[in-house]
Design brief:
The complex is a heterodimer of chains A (about 190) and B (about 325).
Chain A: H1 2-27, H2 40-60, H3 62-67, E1 70-71, E2 76-77, H4 94-103, E3 108-117, E4 123-129, E5 139-148, E6 152-154, E7 160-163, E8 179-191
Antiparallel strand pairs in A: 1-2, 3-4, 3-8, 5-8, 6-7
Chain B: H1 15-48, H2 53-80, H3 85-108, E1 113-135, E2 145-148, E3 154-161, E4 175-181, E5 184-192, E6 196-202, E7 208-214, E8 219-222, E9 227-228, E10 231-232, E11 247-251, E12 257-264, E13 282-298, E14 301-309
Antiparallel strand pairs in B: 1-12, 1-13, 2-11, 3-8, 3-12, 4-5, 4-11, 5-6, 6-7, 8-9, 9-10, 13-14
Helix pairs in contact in B: 2-3
The chains are: A alpha+beta (about 190), B alpha+beta (about 325).
Chain lengths: ~190, ~325
Amino acid sequence: MRGQVHTLEAIVAGLLLLTSVVFALQMTAVTPLSASTSSQHIENQQQASAEGVLASAVESGALRGAILTWNASGNRFYDTTNERYYTSDVPPTEFGRLLGEHFGSRGIAFNVYLVYSTHAGKTRRARMIYRGAPSDNAVATSRTVVLTDDAQLSDPSGKRVGQISDGAYLMPDASNTTLYNVVRVEVVAWRI
Amino acid sequence: MADLTLWADDGRRDRAQVILVTGFALAVAFVALALVVNSVIYTENLATRSASASASDAVTLRQDAGDGTARLIASIDEHHAGETYGDLRARLRAGVENVSAIVRRYQVVDGRAVTTSLVAVQRGAWIEQQSAPRPFTNASGDADWTPVNDSAGAHSFRFHVVNTTVLGGKATRHFAVVARNGSKTWRLEIYSNASNYVGVVHHADGSDRTCTGALPTDFWVNVSAGTFAGSPCPGLGFADGLGGVENVSFSNGDTINGTYRLLVGKADTALDVSDFGVGGPTNARAIYGATVHLAYESARFRYETDVAAVPGDRDA
C-alpha cells in the first residue's frame, strides 16, 4: 500500500514538473523580437516602408499619376478585367512598379484603397489594388491628394486621354468650386 | 498527503515526498520565471512600438495641405487669371474650405480633428505673350528688357518657339533668360546649330547643362517642369540653386519668336507698365502663393502650424 502511494506521489510530482515546463515554454514562445508574421519589429518596418513608398510616390508625382490613370470608356482602371481594380498584377504605372518592387519580392501583400467624397458629402472607399483580407498584423498608412477640375486622365503610357469629369471617372465632382475631389490613398500591407 | 514524521526512520520511504516537494518548488519557480519573462516581453513590446506615429501623421498632413493648396492655386491661376485679386482670393478660400471639410471627415474616423483655413494670399501676375507668336521683346520692341524686378519669386515658366528661323547660333547673338537672386545668377541660352535646337543652362554654382531637341518646325520648353522639346532634361529646372528669384531679364529677345508665360510674385500694378500693352506682352492678375493654417488634434497630440504653398515651389 505504502509503495503504491509513493509511486503515485512520484508520478504526480513528475506530471507537475512536466506541466510546469510546458507552461513555461508556452509563455516564452513568441517575443516581439522572434521571427514571426506578428513581430512588432516587422510591423514597424512595414509601416516605415509603406510610408516611404507613399512619400516617394507623392514627391515624384507618381501617386497622382496612378490615381488619374483611368480607363474612362471601360469605367475601370486600365488592364483590369471583371473587377474594376487590380488583383494579382500591380497597376501599369510608376506607383504600381514602386509598390511591386518594394513589397512584391519580399513576400508582403498589400491593398490600396482610394477614399473619396460623394456629392452628398458621404465618404466612399474604392479598391485600387486588392489582394485579400489583411491579417490582424497589417499596417496602414495614407496620403491625401487634392484633385482639381482641370486634372487630366491619362493612359498607362502617360498620354493624356481627357479631362476628369462626373460619370467618366471613379469618383464624382464633390464640390462646385475649383476643387474636384479629395482622395485619401490608403496602403495596407501585411506579411503573407 | 503522507506523514513525513511517521516514516522518518526509513530513508527510502520519504524519497517520493522529497520528489513531490521538489516538484512543487520547481513548479512555483517556473511559474515565477514565466511571469518575469512575460513582463519582459510586454515591456519590450511597448518599447518597440512606434511612439512617433501621431507626429509623423501630422507632418505628412502638413505636407499634403501645402501640396493641395498649391494645386488649387495652380488651377485658379490657369483658368481665372485676370480676375480681381478679391475674386481670386474668394475662389481660393472656397477651395481650401472645401478641402478642409472633406479631409476633416476622412480624419475623424481615425479619431483626429483636422482644420485648414486660408490665412494670407500673395499677389502675383502672369507675364505672358499668349495671343499670337511674336519676338520676346517688350511692348516698345526692346530686345533686352527686364520683365520683373524685386519680385518675391517666379515660377511656372514655359515657352513655345514657333518661328525657329530667327534663332541665333552658338557664336552669334542668341536669346537668353537670366534669373537673379542677389549676386547669384541662373542663365538659359537658346540657339540652334546645324542639326539641333540647343538649350544651355548655366547654374549659379558654375555647372552647365545642355538640352537638345531635333529640328522640327516648333518646340516647347517647359522650364519649370524641366522638359525641352517634349523630353525631360534633368538640370533644366527654372532658377535651380538660386533659392529664390528677385528679377528675370530677357536678352536678345528678337532672336526668338513664339509665346511664353511666367508667373511672378509681384502685383500687376507694381510691374513696369511701359513694357506691356497692345501689340506686346501682357500681364494678368494671379495668385503667386498662399499661407494656410493647419490645426491637427488627436487624443494625445496637438499641432498647429502655418503652411506656405507656392505652386512649383521646387522651381527655385
